[in-house]
Amino acid sequence: MDKQILDAERRGEFAELAGAGKPLPPGTDTTYDELWWIRQKMAREGLSVLPPTLALRKEAEDTLAAAYAAPSERIARKLITDVNVRIRDMMFKPPPGPPLGMKPYDVEEVVREWHARQTATAKAEETAWVPSAS
């Protein structure tokens, strides 16, 4: 078998293979990993699995950003109230992963910030509008 490979190599039969002379793709190593196909599938699909506390932290940060961008105070309050329920639930359970390291948001503080951002956006839009001189 080795002789056949060497002979084919001398004849140049491997010279035109796809990927010749290029580095191996990321994640290719020589150690055996029985879950290699799962890792590759997750990478292709853009999936990640976070411990529940880290997933909640990410969700809370995204929810806070969504609350600041909410179209109304009612929606901002609802978003923060709902995520606070989840944060409180996680705070009083033994952590299934790393500690959460968060406390519930102050709904009134978020609403004050929401109002400030709405006012700033409205003022920016007013100053940006310039009547045309026709």
Question: From the structure provided, what is the oligomeric state, counting identical versus distinct chains?
Answer: single chain
User: What share of the residues lie within helices?
Assistant: 55-70%
Uncertain stretches: none
Head-to-tail CA distance between termini: 86 Å
User: Pairing-aware structural class of the strands and helices?
Assistant: mainly alpha
Question: What share of the residues does DSSP label as strand, in percent?
Answer: under 5%
Order of helices and strands: HHHHH
What's this, in brief?
By secondary structure, the chain is mostly helical. It has five helices and no strands.
Describe the structure.
The N and C termini lie far apart (86 Å). The protein has 134 residues and is mostly helical. Helices cover 57% and strands 0% of the residues. The radius of gyration is 28 Å and the shape is elongated. Helix 4 packs antiparallel against helix 5 (107-128). The chain has five helices and no strands. The model has no long low-confidence stretch (mean pLDDT 85).
Keywords:
134 residues, mainly alpha, 5 helices, elongated
Layout: helices, strands, pairs:
Layout: H1 2-10, H2 36-45, H3 52-68, H4 73-91, H5 107-128
